[in-house]
Amino acid sequence: MPQDEAVIGCTGKVLVRTRGAAGPGEVLVSVRGGSETFIAWSEDPLPTGATVLVIESRGCREVGVIEWVDPLAALG
């Protein structure tokens, strides 16, 4: 399945927690002027509500994510 390059670098929120190597969760990603849900895989477990950054597209509406803290948020 082809990758969805448009989602790489986008941020989102975890809707269903990820479990690291034990299994995926679900994220809502801001992309293409709206929001779309994707199955999300992460190296470490991520709780519901965590902000994430999409680091890879796995095709079939699946993405790899990491927890994300906006570095500009500290500036106010």
What this model shows, in words?
With 76 residues, this protein is mainly beta. Helices cover 0% and strands 47% of the residues. The chain has a 5-stranded mixed β-barrel with strand order 1-2-3-5-4. The mean pLDDT is 94.
Distance between the termini: 41 Å
Q: Strand order, main sheet: write it out.
A: 1-2-3-5-4
Question: What's the rounded overall pLDDT mean?
Answer: 94
Which sequence of SSEs, written as H and E, runs from N to C? EEEEE
Describe the sheet with the most strands.
5 strands, mixed, barrel
Instruction: Tell me the structural class.
Output: mainly beta
Globally, the shape reads: globular
How big a fraction of the residues is strand? over 45%
Helix content: under 10%
Number of helices: 0
Radius of gyration: 12 Å
Report low-confidence residues grouped into runs of 5 or more: none
Number of strands: 5
InterPro entries: NA-bd_OB-fold
In short:
It is built from no helices and five strands. With 76 residues, it is mainly β.
Considering the chains and any ligands shown, give keywords for the structure:
76 residues, 5 strands, 0% helix, globular, single chain, mainly beta, 5-stranded mixed β-barrel
What's the arrangement of secondary structure elements?
Elements: E1 11-16, E2 25-31, E3 34-41, E4 51-59, E5 62-67
Parallel strand pairs: 3-5
Antiparallel strand pairs: 1-2, 1-4, 2-3, 4-5
